[in-house]
Amino acid sequence: MTAKDRQEYKLNVGKIEEGFVIDHIHPGRGMELYYYLGLDKRDDCVAIIQNAYSKKMGKKDMIKVECPIQQLDLDIIAFLDHTATIDVIKDGEIISKPKLEFPKKIVNVIKCRNPRCITSTEHELSHVFHLTDPENGTYRCKYCETKWTPISG
Fold first, then answer.
1. 140 CB contacts (<8 Å, ≥6 apart)?
2. How confident is the model at residue 152 (pLDDT cuts 50, 70, 90)?
3. Percent of the chain with pLDDT over 70
């Protein structure tokens, strides 16, 4: 596809007044992020763009969410795709671009896959994972030490 062809396929998604633009999501991961963020259970305006052209990545996904800025958990985004970029929007303008880093601890985002973990039988326990290898994004279950590494791009 030539640059001229790409120009003809550009989408125009309206400006948001307050919310987030999550950009440079690894292609094919936008819907996964959508569900992990719980956006399917909210009444906010959401635009999801998949496999968009990107000079930086070749292809990318993007999510635009119109919601009060304190209502989106940036740690979940950092956990699932720490190379994504975030624009925080207030009054129609970008007010910040926080840098994503793997969170030190995640709670109730993923479940332990170990069938012998106490969380398999004690359902009221929170699923807690601690970051053990910041370079590779490796987490371990608080209770049984089962390893969890995110899928890379």
1. 129, 130, 132, 146, 147, 148
2. low
3. 90
